[in-house]
Structures are given as structure tokens and as C-alpha cells.
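Can you give me the bound-state structure? Components:
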Amino acid sequence: MRLEMLRDLLRCEVLTGADALDTEIETAVASDAMSLVLASPHPRALMITGLTNVQSVRTAQVAYLPAIVYVRGNRPSETTVKLARDSKTVLLSTKLGMFECCGILYSHGIRDGN
Amino acid sequence: MAEELLRRTFEIQGRDFENAGERSTEVTTILKDLDVDPNTVLRVGVVAFEAEMNVVMYAHRATLTFVLTDQEIVVEVADEGPGIPDIELAMEPGYSTASDEMREMGFGYGLGLPNIKKNSDVFSLESEVGKGTRVYSKIRLMSYE
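Here's the bound-state model for the whole set.
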């Protein structure tokens, strides 16, 4: 699934990376715990999280995750957005909760990254 | 005998949550630029990131040493801090002494040390209560496995 379709499905606001919405996503990992994301790496997966600090973007950088969806209307600071812009990580924000996001994406064929 | 190609040292300050993870991403950027295979970069990144977060969460300060040879990558983090009284317990997945504040940062779930060990080909942990902790991780380059 292209990120632009995901943006529409989850009614996301694009915080940065609008020029990379043609990136294809097939798998996802959802957690507020970055150690859990790092515990079983999911290269090229989408990260779904409520954690908006700078470590969310650094985790994406280290773990080869091209995009993050922040749930529950959470928005990262400008510092975090800038880091994502510099590292070419796409940041999206949705008002939906994590459970609903996962359900919608699963029903459209996105699977766990393991 | 392995030939040393690159050595970098980084200082890490305890409680510096804003910059936590910066050194690890710098290390992974160096490796990506050198065209090291992604799986190895990922393993080194996880080791360095978790070790860095441990310092920021628990220690006063530390030195992260990163060494690349033609055969392997070594990440060593030596900190000045409270030390670990029971290493066996600290290595158990899920065991953590982290505060809620640390968990709100996305870490402190008792997975740091197990994650480091899992991603290492050689791993050692030494600690002295009241003095500090030294984490050593060696990851072989794919072509030498």
C-alpha cells in the first residue's frame, strides 16, 4: 500500500515527507515502547505509535522504518519533525487510536513485520 | 589479525534525553555510507541505541567507543553510574528498575540489555555497584560469518 492511500484511510495529516507518499508499505509495527520495536526489527515497516518524542524518529532511523503514524491526535515537537525531515522519515498524524488504525490497515492487507 | 579501519568515541551524558540516540544514529549513518549490509547496520544500531538509552536513563556519564575492522564491529559503552547489583536479574527480559518518566520516553521496559545481547555475536557485561557498568558487544561482518 502506498503511504498516500494509508494517509486517506487513516485521515492523516502529513507532518513531513509529503514528497515521499509514493513509498510502499506492506508491514507495520505498533507500540509506544521503542525497545519493543527494536526487539524484533521490521525493516521497511510502518511504525504506529503514540510516542512523539525525538526517540521515535531515531528508532525509525536505526530500524530502517520509512514512516511513522502518530495516533490519538498526538503531534511531535518541531525539533522531532525537523529530525525526521533531515533523515527523510515520513511523519503522519491521525486522530484515530492505535487499535482502530491497526484494524483498518489489517483489513487492507497490511501485516505484522515478523 | 583484524585490521582496524575506523574508531570513534562519543561522550554521553546521563539524563540528556533530548540528545539520546544521536550517537547511535551517527554510527549507523557511518556504516550506511560505507555500504555495510543493512542487517549488520540494524544490529549495531540496536546495540548502540539501547546502550545509549541505558546511560541516559541510569548513569551519570559514559564513553561509547565504536570500532570497525575488516572483520567485525565493536561497540563498547563504559559508564560512571550506580552499577548493576544483580546482573543475572538485569538480563531477564521484562525486568526493569525504570521510572514511569523513563517509560514515557519509550524505553525502560526491561528489554535493553536482552536486545543488546540478542544482536551481539560476542557480549559481555561487567558492573561494580557505586562505580559503573561496561557493556561490550562484537558483531561480525556478514562476509566473515
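A couple of observations. Chain A touches chain B through 23 residues (CB under 8 Å). Residues 98-107 of chain A form the longest helix (10 residues).
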